[in-house]
Amino acid sequence: MDFQKLANQYRDELFNNILPFWLDKSQDMEFGGYYTCLDRRGDVYDTDKFIWLQGRQVWLFSMMYNKVEKRQEWLDCAIQGAEFLRKYGHDGNLNWYFSLTREGKPLVQPYNIFSYTFATMAFAQLSLATGNEEYGRIAKETFNKIIEKQSNPKGQWNKAYPGTRDLKGFSLPMILCNLALEIEHLIDRELIDQTIETCLNEVMNVFYNDELGLILENVTPEGEFSDSYEGRVLNPGHSLEAMWFIMDLGVKLNRPDIIEKATQIALRTIEYGWDTKHEGIFYFMDIKGHPTQQLEWDQKLWWVHIETIITMLKAYQLTGSKEALSWFEKLHDYTWTHFKDEENPEWFGYLNRQGEVLLDLKGGKWKGCFHIPRGLYQSWKILETL
């Protein structure tokens, strides 16, 4: 395998296709922030602004500026998005709304914890790029709010009736594994260590089901299996993405045992989640094989595949697993032939089970400037070391 040739492929796609698309098409130069609802050609079809996607784009361009090259256009793009967020993204007390109008008027209440996590990531990374203390303060205070909200992320907007079937979700501990590393330059050492320890335990012990060798999306507060729609659901992409976060923590803590366990979970998950008939990874599955609640269960999604590419490359880089390398090859072929749009910039996000384009948008309420550029960056960097 020609790792250098592959490294160039990922790098060139990032620099010549993906980043120019978001720089040119998504910036709202009149009101600030970014449009994410972009059609196949990159034209705006809806002007609502989703806080978590705004934060992700601020983070991405700040990260590129910090880690790759001090390009002014990248920094300018990040700062203008951050200023829009700082002015309009929250209620004045850093409770981050879910979405805003184009001008910055709130549309949806701050019910979603991921508005908070990506605001934290955005301002933490931008504080590194600019040295701006206000950005650092916003990141720190928002992080503290996330820690406070851990036991009930939705707070007053939680629809579940208390006490009947209390469940906790995998997404937050998973994100915190990554967020802890993003914000460690701003936060007290003890709090970071404590956060990492808690997340590692949650991801690798509480949500990981030893019997199945798989990670569940929801468990009871005691960490037990719940035989219900929510309790049976498996999101292979989530587990696979989380495993490269865990590998990064394993490297940081110098814990090869964690890296090895993450590799084994990743291999088990992709084997379980792979569609042997049409290829690609299923979006949702029921661990007992029952029909899923999610009607989109068999769709093939961009983020699932690009994140899994990172996981398999990291697993190979850190453990030498030949199995991980062969999965990388399979995923690479599938992803580049199905998600890349050969006629227009950026990639498709949503395919049907057969691998045909289901929605030809390049961005929307859930797809923005994040998974593909981050995945191309991570893969390029790993491939270069190989």
Explained architecture:
By secondary structure, the chain is mainly alpha-helical. Helix content is 55%, strand content 8%. The protein has 13 helices and 14 strands. The protein has helices at residues 3-25, 51-67, 72-88, 113-130, 133-149, 171-182, 189-206, 229-232, 236-253, 256-273, 302-319, 322-338, 371-385; strands spanning 37-38, 44-46, 49-50, 99-100, 106-108, 168-169, 208-209, 214-215, 218-219, 233-234, 285-286, 300-301, 350-351, 357-359. The strands form six sheets. It has a three-stranded antiparallel β-sheet with strand order 3-4-5. Strands 12-13-14 form a three-stranded antiparallel β-sheet. Strands 1-2 form a two-stranded antiparallel ribbon. The protein starts with a helix and ends with a helix.
Radius of gyration: 20 Å
Can you identify the CATH class of the largest domain? Mainly Alpha
Q: What is the terminal-to-terminal distance?
A: 10 Å
Assembly state (oligomeric): single chain
Quote the beta fraction.
5-15%
